[in-house]
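Limitations
The C-alpha cells in this dataset are predictions for the assembled complex, not deposited experimental models. Users should treat interface geometry with appropriate caution, especially where small molecules or nucleic acid strands are included. An illustrative entry is reproduced here so readers can see what is and is not provided.
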Amino acid sequence: MRPFLMLSMLLSLAVAGCNRPGATDEAQAIRDIETRWNQMIVERDLKGIVGLYADDGVVMAPNMPPMQGPGPVTQVWGGLFQLPGFKLTITPVEVTVARSGDLAMDRGVYALTTTGPAGEVVENGKYVVVWKKVGEEWKVAADIFNANAAPAAPAPEPAA
Amino acid sequence: MRPFLMLSMLLSLAVAGCNRPGATDEAQAIRDIETRWNQMIVERDLKGIVGLYADDGVVMAPNMPPMQGPGPVTQVWGGLFQLPGFKLTITPVEVTVARSGDLAMDRGVYALTTTGPAGEVVENGKYVVVWKKVGEEWKVAADIFNANAAPAAPAPEPAA
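Predicted assembly:
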C-alpha cells in the first residue's frame, strides 16, 4: 500500500473516532432516557430515577442546598413523591452533544402539578440537565431547574 | 521509517487531536472568563456581559420565562443592575470540559446582595452555566440558577 493512501485511511479513521457514535444518535439516546424518566415518575420508581444519576450527580433544586450523591438525590425525589397530588412531566427542548460524545447539555421545560388548599396547582418551569458518559451509559452530572413565575400569593383576607 | 513506527506516531497525533488543546487548559480558560465576568459585574459592563453569551444563549432565571438572545439577555442583566444595592459574585465549583473541547459544564455558587426595607439582604444560591465553543471562543449556551433557601418571610405584624 502506498504511504499516502495509508496515511489518508488512518486519518479518516482517527477523525471518525473523534465523533463516534454520532451526535444525532447520542442526542436521541438522551431523549429516550427522558421518556423513560417520565414513565418512572408515573410509576414512582425511586430507585430507577436515582440510578439515572452519576455517583457524583447533583440535584440543584430551588430553596435547598445542592444535593449530591445517591443518598441526597433519593431524599429529593422521595420528597417530591410525598407532595399531595404530585405529577411531573419533563420535555427536552434542546439536546446538544459534544463531538467526543462524553458530555451533553439538555435543556427543556417541565410542568409540576400538586394539590393545594384551593385545588390543583400547576407550576411551569425550565431545566438544564448536564449528562456525562459513565462507561457506556449517559448519567446525570447536574440537574437544575426553576419556575417561570413566582407562586401565586394566597388570596388576601377580606378587610374586617 | 518502519510502517509500525509510522502508524504509532499517526495514532498518537490522532488521539492528541481529539483532546486538543487540553481539558485542563480549557477549564482554566473558562474559570478565567468567570473572573472577568465578576469584574464586569462590578463595573456594570452590560455590553461586555451580554457578549459572553452565544447568539442563541439563554438565561433561565427564577420566576421568569427563558430569555434567549442578546436582547432578552440584556433585559435580564439590565434589570439586575437596577436592583437597589445590587452586588453579585459567582464562584465556579466544578468545570468539566468534553474531550473534544467544544462543550463544558460549569457549576458553582453565587452570592447576590440587594438592599431591602430592613437593610442588606444576601441570597446564596447555585448555578449551572453550559459553555460551547463558537469559533475559538467559549460562549454561554445556557445559564440557570436558583436560591439555596426561600426568601425570609416579612416579620409578622404584632397581633392587634
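Some entries come with short summary sentences. For this one: Chain B touches chain A through 42 residues (CB under 8 Å).
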